[in-house]
């Protein structure tokens, strides 16, 4: 039975994760697979409510008129046992709901994060903040499925059982609660479209708020230094204002349904008493029967209140669900067919008539370029700002697919490789060279088992990291804040270089690796790199002439086209030659 439940859960989650023909009811099915079977039977809990109503009726009708104390004791013991069971079942229900919530968190959180990491950069939409906000929407989903509210759905069929019992005891008295049911449903139905609209709006505004927040926190220093605070403060207060406004409207409308359901329960209770009294006068109902009917009528309507609440949360959940589904449906990186694995590259890189345009850009960043870099060759990509140098590095690493033409590693289109196996052959320092939260050791090894302490010390010696870590108290265990806060720009670059050299990858891509270093540090680094990079392919992007010592060939770019390609000194001569008047 447990194994069956387990596999049901797995399948349902699989459907959601695969982003296939996912419909909201898949999520519902999943939620029930998570807890429907686990919760124990809420029906039973509701049956206990029924039992207590019948107990009251028996006491009033049989015990009180006959003073039957022995029967009362027996009935009380029975009821005490039922109350105890009810208590235990409710505890179990709460436990399993929380348990299911934790499970949803873990499983869905993992799946969505994996998808996020595998996202194709060219398909990434929205700002970092909006994407962060979207991940937070997972909590909306989790809260919905892991809330006691959803368990109320299971109580709905019991509504009919309760009404049938009221009809059996009180006859036409049942019309009072039966009339309330369509009224509550009608109010829910009427408010639903407005809720749907407001929920989509408030979600969009929530993401906007998140964007401003992430941007502000991420660049607090620049923000203060450049005096951009008031600009962002303005954006923030506008986003907060709009968001809280639509949230307020959403809550007000949602509360109409919930409050009405509460009033309907009270009306049902009072209405049953009024109608019941006329039935007593006609001798068609006993005193105990009336009390039992009024208890049951209130009890029958109660889950409807929860359903009204559920409906209001359902709209927010559906909006979040569609947004997350959109993310899950984005095709991941790598080929659709079986990917090739690149175990050990020879280091050959080839571009054939390569063109590329960033998503949404009008101009091509690369326009029909071709070159071949032989294994072990050291090549610099030079050119003015925005000429397309970094773009070539991104395409070689398979971060973006070409718009036209081919980029190949070892004679194979990079799109055919499994991205992780392709990038495993590269050591790359990208322009922003971001470090991660954690120790210097973690930043160099990145959890790769092959990078032991000896290898870490070796590459840190080459990159110059060892030289400055020796002067810091806890050296390699120094904890960095996010993006390497706590170190100077040059120090961060040095760690990024160590990270790229670790494990001696066959191809090294350096994009402005020393832009924040002083000349002395840079000279030492160049000397050490001469030996380190022998026999390995180097693609170097730089604006700093001393680094060109490392290369034997230069490819010169301008506006996405190659304007010179040849031996280093010949191209340098061409660049520095004064133009003919
Ligand atoms: N993520 C991006 N989205 C849209 N356009 C981009 C993006 N990155 C770069 N570009 C555009 O592509 C062109 C080439 O950019 P690239 O970063 O390759 O230049 P670069 O030669 O490396 O310049 P720099 O020397 O300043 O680093 C530029 O015109 C730039 O505006």
Describe, in short, the structure shown:
With 581 residues, the chain is an alpha/beta fold.
Describe the sheet with the most strands: 6 strands, mixed
Helical amount: 55-70%
> Any idea what the CATH architecture of the largest domain is?
Up-down Bundle
Compute the number of helices: 18
Approximate shape: elongated
CATH class type of the largest domain = Mainly Alpha
In the residues, how many domains can be counted? 2
Q: What gap, in angstroms, lies between the N and C termini? A: 88 Å
Describe the protein.
It is found in: Cell membrane. It is a single chain. The chain is α/β, with parallel strands linked by helices. The chain folds into two domains: 16-329, ABC transporter transmembrane region fold (Up-down Bundle); 349-576, P-loop containing nucleotide triphosphate hydrolases (Rossmann fold), CATH 3.40.50.300. It has helices at 2-18, 24-36, 42-66, 69-117, 128-145, 148-170, 175-218, 220-226, 229-281, 287-329, 389-396, 419-423, 440-445, 453-463, 465-469, 489-501, 519-532, 568-576; strands at residues 349-356, 366-373, 378-383, 404-409, 412-413, 426-429, 438-439, 479-480, 507-511, 537-541, 553-558, 561-567. It has a six-stranded mixed beta sheet, sandwiched between helices. A four-stranded antiparallel beta sheet has the order 2-1-4-5, covered by helices on one side. A two-stranded antiparallel ribbon has the order 7-8. Helix 3 (42-66) packs antiparallel against helix 4 (69-117) and helix 7 (175-218) packs antiparallel against helix 9. The termini are far apart. Residues 1-44 have low confidence and may be disordered. The structure holds adenosine-5'-triphosphate.
